[in-house]
């Protein structure tokens, strides 16, 4: 069982930056693929970024490539999402998730709100 708690959301102007953190409980954090997703009002949840358990492989949605960076610190049981050059269309609730290739994303956090003003 893994419990996830996101933090770091807030209100920022377009062009600004935020760093989201997701703290995980459980001693098996380092074995999970970690991902970030987001859901804007009236829209479906969408994939943002993912990172392998070693951190050697990273994946991004086209909409955030070159602006967002995912990273993890297995010693701290934490995954991060550095978001630069934010746009109003990045406004959403951001969720972190933990999973595996066989089971998909099994565990989800409660989400943190990111609002980008124009």
Q: Describe the sheet with the most strands.
A: 7 strands, mixed
The tally of helices reads 0
Radius of gyration: 13 Å
Q: What is the H/E order?
A: EEEEEEEEEEE
Give the averaged pLDDT, no decimals.
Answer: 95
Runs with pLDDT <50, length 5+? none
Kindly, what is the distance between the CA atoms of the first and last residues, rounded to a whole number of angstroms? 40 Å
Structural class: mainly beta
Overall form: globular
Q: What is the helical fraction, as a range of percent?
A: under 10%
What is the count of β-strands? 11
Beta fraction of the residues?
over 45%
Explain what you see.
By secondary structure, the chain is mostly beta strands. The chain starts with a strand and ends with a strand. The chain has no helices and 11 strands. The strands form 2 sheets. Strands 2, 4, 5, 6, 9, 10 and 11 form a 7-stranded mixed β-sheet that branches. Strands 1-3-8-7 form a 4-stranded antiparallel β-sheet, with no helix packed on it.
